[in-house]
Amino acid sequence: MIAMSPWKKMTNSVFNWEESYFGGYERVVYDHPSIFIPYSIKINLGDTHGTSWYIANKVMSIFLTKVIKHHFTRILLDKFKVKSVRGYIPSLDKRVAVINKNSLKKALDMVTASDADLSNLFIHYRKLILASTIEWELSKKDDKSNAEAIANSMQQDFERCKEQKPYTWGSGGSVSGELKDDTEFVNASQDYGDWHPTSSEMKDANNLVNMLDISFDPKEDRVENLKCGKMSPHKVAEIPAGNTHVYHRVEENMSTRPFSICILADESGSMRGENDERQNHLMKVLYTAFSQILPQDKMFIYGHSGESTPEIRIYHDKYNTTFAQTINSQLNNEYNENYDGPVIENIYERVRQQTSDNIIFLSISDGEPAGEDYGGPEAIKEMKRVIEKCKRDGFVTVGIGLQYHSVKDIYQYHTVIKKSDDLVKNVSSLVNRVVKTEFKD
């Protein structure tokens, strides 16, 4: 059987960035860090097939960094040819080494097959890359008759190609612009006494854990609550009560990749009343439940509000394991405005400084983003950009709407909590769906 060429395989990547609401391939290129290319290396673009100069040039730069990363530099530089290029005046004459087209194709094939994250990007822009020419300018001291010495000098220069600061989306160097830079993290107050789970919170937490279909076993996954399969001994007592879902099934090769949990609470003015109490209860239940299956350093819990600029309150993270000492202060906080986009982007960066895990990010809210000179369709659009940008890095944002049905218009994964009875069932179902879809090996 003839193996299929790597550029023929057009299956989507793990996080489906190819289907991005904001442009897929081009958005990935825009969001990729800018790249330093030594002056001696020149990229001559051929037929860009309708792609803008900026995108085409950056795709080529990204390609060069991946060649270096996967140690294919020598393959790219194989069989180069040296030619003379006349300048406007004799003193500007120069010699350049031109990358061989077959070597370029071979390096591209190997990068495409080796780089799982951006494989589809290189497939998409394959014609553009192969239509381009890469040249390297020889210095006056380079001996044009010594191909090995030239190759060594070329390799040193090519391996100087590297990523620099991220692409600037407006001011502030981020999708969220200046508001992101103006965001402040503060420690939540510890003035309202230590919290201990109530019987109601423990009951909901235990029910939530029982409904979670999550296993970190590398070989198999156990599916509970089935009508047929193997008998679950701990369920036998439920048969007289009419529960026939007392069997389980073991699914092989369905292990869950490790993940951490992040929770964000909306502490804007509209949350005052029934919703802030329901949210406080939900946060305590989630913390109690996930504490049974995750270490403390895999939980990140924040709240956010602010008057003219965003403020993020830290209830718990890797370096502030203070949930029990701070969560009771939540109902006594100042509830003002909600700047969701810059808040999510800042939390993403903070969490990424503490872990490289995949993240389920539960964002609890009762409405749309709204702040001083911030809100409406543009704020929602910016927020969606932030969410998709984070998802490409395994940071999957989930919307929990407290009596807020439009949550479905913002988040791919979402649920609506209409009443307290919905809490455990809706949240467990949502988390199970995210884990099964995004975090399965």
Uncertain ranges: 165-173
For the termini, the CA-CA separation is 27 Å
Beta-strand proportion: 15-25%
H/I helix tally: 14
> Which architecture of the largest domain would the CATH scheme give at its second level?
3-Layer(aba) Sandwich
Structural summary, described in words:
- With 441 residues, the chain is α/β, with parallel strands linked by helices.
- The protein has 3 domains: 6-163, no CATH class; 171-214 and 257-438, von Willebrand factor, type A domain (Rossmann fold, 3-Layer(aba) Sandwich); 216-255, no CATH class.
- It is built from 14 helices and 18 strands.
- The longest helix is centred in the first third of the chain and has 17 residues, at 53-69.
Summarize the helices and strands and which ones pair or pack.
Layout: H1 25-31, E1 35-36, E2 41-44, H2 53-69, H3 73-76, E3 81-85, E4 94-98, H4 101-114, H5 119-124, H6 126-131, E5 133-137, H7 147-158, E6 162-163, H8 178-181, E7 184-187, H9 199-211, E8 220-226, E9 230-231, E10 247-252, E11 259-266, H10 274-290, E12 299-305, E13 311-316, H11 323-326, H12 340-352, E14 358-365, E15 370-371, E16 374-375, H13 376-391, E17 395-402, E18 413-417, H14 423-438
Parallel strand pairs: 7-13, 11-12, 11-14, 14-17, 17-18
Antiparallel strand pairs: 1-6, 2-5, 3-4, 4-5, 8-10, 9-10, 12-13, 15-16
Helix pairs in contact: 9-10, 9-14, 12-13
